[in-house]
Amino acid sequence: MYHKKHKYDLIILFSVFILGISLFLAISESRGITVPCGITGGCEQVLTSKYSHPLGLPLPFLGIAYTSLIIVLGLLANHYPLFRRLLTWLLGMGAVFSLIFLSIQFLVLKAICQYCLTVDVIVILMFLWDLHIEFRREFA
Question: Which residues form the domain of 128?
Answer without folding.
Answer: 7-33+58-139
